[in-house]
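Anyone able to model this chain together with NDP?
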Amino acid sequence: MKIALVTGGSRGLGKNMCLHLAAKGTDIILTYHSNEEQAREVVAEIERNGGRGVALQLDVSDHKSFEPFRDRVAGALSEMWGRSDFDFLVNNAGTGVYAPIAETTEEQFDRMVNIHYKSVFFLTQMLLPLIKDGGRIVNISSGLARFSLPGYAAYASAKGAVEVFTRYLAVELGARGITVNVVAPGAIETDFGGGVVRDNPELNKAIAAQTPLGRVGLPDDIGGAVAALLSDDCRWINGQRIEVSGGIHL
Ligand code: NDP
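re: yes, here you go
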């Protein structure tokens, strides 16, 4: 039995990852920030399909909370599974900010660096003792770390940092048999960015036109890819950036 911890599993891509992993027989610890009800609904869906899951609250911008969070994870592992470790960590939680460089505030910048980079660094550090030797880590970046669109500098730079961090993690954790990869989704229809990719028909069409496969991404395009990357068949993939974007802006 494998257990995955997915941050930001209450909605969007994280929820979809949880459901795809659960469908492959992986049990789930998911986190939410404020949407407890939606998080509980994801757990209920996993349970209806015969799996097991638990939802824990976590604000990834509150680094002081990581130690008590680790203890709650340890408690859930022991209570629900009689275990002291889990197999897969997926650092997915996050929100974006849209602001041209000239107008980006220090507060917006710090928020992006905190959520998308510093939290991934220190949450991973905090959870390392709970990750099983031979386990896996997947960080979630963005296509915007490869191609550059106006208005995303603070967000995308922080995602760029997490791509470098991924390679360093892979180097340092190799001795424990832990692989570390980063998945970079293209534009996907979720609530992200106020749901613009999903809800703004003109933007949706424009992104589809830039994508060889002729449409924007859907959550299932990402959840399935992450679950596949965490399968045993992908055990030799390590330290890689895998873009899952339908080939946008090649
Ligand atoms: P959503 O807005 O749909 O979901 C965000 C998730 O992250 C929710 O579970 C939310 O919890 C959680 N979250 C948000 N802020 C915090 C916080 N401060 N602390 C803890 N949890 C938090 O976004 P997506 O699913 O689309 O995005 C998931 C990841 O994918 C992000 O890292 C994003 O940058 C990345 N990404 C998304 C793309 C897209 O087009 N959608 C493209 C490329 C990358 P709650 O429900 O409680 O609010």
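Residues 106-127 form the longest helix (22 residues).
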